[in-house]
Every structure is written in C-alpha cells, then in structure tokens.
Amino acid sequence: MTTSELIAARRSEPWREELRKRKKNKERTAIPRVQMNELDPEYRSHTRLEEVNLGLTKEQAMLEAQRCLDCPTPTCMDGCPVGINIPTFIKNIERGEFLEAAKVLKETSALPAVCGRVCPQEKQCESKCIHIKMGKPAVAIGYLERFAADFERESGQISIPEIKQKNNIKIAVVGSGPAGLSFAGDMAKRGYDITVFEALHEIGGVLKYGIPEFRLPNHIVDVEIDSLRKMGVTFITNCIVGKTISYSDLHNNGFRGIFVASGAGLPNFMNIPGENLVGVMSSNEYLTRVNLMDAANPNADTPIYKGKRVAVIGGGNTAMDSVRTALRLGAEQAIIVYRRSEEEMPARIEEIKHAKEEGVQFLTLHNPIEYIGDEQGHVRQMKLQKMALGEPDASGRRRPVPTGEEETIDIDEVIVSIGVSPNPLIPRAFDGLGISSKGTIIVNEATNQSTISDVFAGGDIVRGGATVILAMGDGRKAAAAMDDFLKSSL
After folding, report:
1. What's the whole-model pTM score?
2. How high is the pLDDT of residue 424?
3. Where are the alpha helices (DSSP H) in 194-261?
4. What is the mean pLDDT of the chain?
C-alpha cells in the first residue's frame, strides 16, 4: 500500500469523523499553541544531568492535538525525512489513545523519543503545517511526538514493530548513530540479520557523545536502542571497522551488505595563531569527554579543565551545547562568538532561547584571529576582528566582511565549534569506494548506494554534517534500496 493509499484508508476510519464533529476547524485554529514546560533557568544552569524540557501533560497534549486540522493533503508529512504519518499519530493523541499514537510513530521511526527532543521540527514538518499559511503558529508536532514516545516508555507497555519472517541474510552496519540505528531498525523489520559495529564503548554515536543529557538524557537513548535489540539487532562495541575488522573480514563472515554510517567526527579548526595553546579544544573533544568519559568528575582518569571565562566559537546547535555545558561546569562567564548576526545562526531557536535564559552572552559579528597565551602556554586572551554583513553567500546567509576594527578580550578556555569533517578511516579501508574532495562517501542520491555495489552509506559520512533526522532519513532510504538490491541479486 502506498503512502497516499494508507492515508486515504486511515482518513476513512469512523473515529476520525467523530473527532471532526466535536470541533469545527474555526474552533481548532483558535486554540493557542502549547508552551513547553521547562526547568527554571537559574536552577538548570547549575545541573548537568537534569533535562531542561519537561514534556507536556496529558491535558496539554490532547488540547494541542485538537489544533491539527487533519488536512486532506497533509503537507506536514512532506517535511518529515522519515515519513511519519503525522495526522494519524496526532489524532490518536486527541482521542486519548496514546499507545496507539506511539505505535504509529514506530512504523517509520526507530527513535521517536529522540526525534521529539532534538529534531528541528520548525525547519521540517512544522514548517509545512497549514497553520503557517494562515498566519498562526504551527501545530507542535515535535512536542506531541515526544509526549507519545514518553508515555509509552513510562507506561511500561513498549511495543515492538512487526518483524517479517527471518531470511537469514546478514547485514553489517558501521556506526551506531542515528543513520545506523534507523537503517538497522528498518532492515530488522524486513527480516534481515543485523549486526551494528561501534568503535566506542557505548552505543548511540553522536546521540551519546555529542548531545548533553540536559537536552537528550542517555536513558532515553538506551530505551530506543533496547527496542532494536528486542527486534533482533546485535550490537558489537569497541570494534573499529577498517582496523579491528576489515571489509574482507565482513565478507568472509557472511555479510551480504554493508551500511556505512560512521559519521563526521574530525573537528575543523580555523588555523589561526595560538590554536595549540592549552585550553583551546574542539567541541567534539569537549562534549565527548564530558558526555561519554565523565571528565567533569574530578576523580575521572582524565578530568577536563573547567574554565571561568569560556568562549565558544560558532553558532550551531553544537556550539550551544558546548557553551551551556561550560556554564554547568562552573564557568562564571560563557560567551558565544559568532562571525555573523544572530539571525544567521544555524542553531535551533529554542536552543538560543535556552542559552540566553541561562546567562550565556552573545558576541555576534566578531571573528577570532588570534589566541594569546601566558608563559605556561595556557590561553589567556582572544583577539577578535569585528565584522559586518555583506551580500548573501552560497548558504543564503549574508557573508561576514571584516570592518578593519579589532578588540581583545580575556578568556581562559576556548571551544571551537565551526563544523566537522568525515573520519577518513572508513573511506581508506574500502578499496574502490568513491570519495569526494571533502572526504565524504559518494552515493547515488536516490538509493544511497556507493560505487561498491554492496556498500551503502548515509548520515554525516555522506552529508559532511547534518541533523539527526536527515541522517535517519538516509538510513530509511538506504534500507529500502538495499532490500531491493539484495532481492534482485538472488
């Protein structure tokens, strides 16, 4: 059944007509958008492990669900990379069938509780909501997704999607981030024998090492991963494909297909004077050490330095995660330094809002040109070039142009968050794999199949850096395409 046929069939369900009778569209559009319940900013800025967003109550969720107009052509679904049947899961919430809503989410998403927290819905599904065209706030699809997934988990009645009969075909997944987990879930549903190889000691990839617990608690990720285990997915940690095990080893062990989702963990730097000073590090190192290695604990094997005047260079979500983490580790002053204006920041509006509420300072239209250290080689100052906005560049954002003015500020820690590049290990380990000039794996955009026929790839190793939901979309697309490829080769 096609997506359109599925939507048409579900729209004919009797309970939908009953919901329409309860409230007319004019009444639904008059309901104000729900506000997320949050921890107090002063309190939360000092606690690293408590989640900032608290979720919706049942009453809030059911009222917000009433705002959905159940459009004949649900444009919101066009904005969802994993194809969630948004109207159906929302209408289930409206009628109080919360577990049914969660089941609908799991039909297409392996990580609904994760996506409900970190997916940029305002740029995806919510940006396509009919309410926007009417000059009103979009339905809070992300909040409702989180609510349904959390309700199911807290109820203890966690559903497992239907699994087709096992076909005994072994598939390897390289990396356990969002792309790998999404692919694994979809292939497991199709009856394949899935093994995920993870280089680190924890499953979850960027969901574990890159996103702080105050935004995405580890136990939430663990529950989603446990659901995949119950679907038959096997996870092997501390295994580096390309080092611990080779492409040939995978074939010799009977794997018929490989999905590469090894991410982009190589940090970018600006190559300016002083970057080698003590106290200057990448956001990758900073967040990985704090989130995954317990480096904030002074008794850790490698405790992290806790600066008092911390500058984070960049304006994306990772920059916001880093600067807010610095506050929670005791920084007296935490500053975002960004070369464009706030309007050009790629970070989610909610993350910028939270950072400001917690006391983060924003120094926009400034760009570092040198870090200055003391006699011991520790960073103590940062020289900045003032910028102005020129004409738009290839990204559509106005290009920052130096004004010729400079200033120097005192800092004792710098966290550089200006993007990442793909880890070169996998591309080098697979002979014949097409690689772009940026180090990403070249794939067929329609199928995510690489230049090696049995190797597919997705996520940051292909995109060079993207969102969780786009990586998951790649995983779903690659799963469907690999399934077709394997069936045609039988």
Report:
1. 0.91
2. 79
3. 206-209, 218-230, 247-252
4. 92
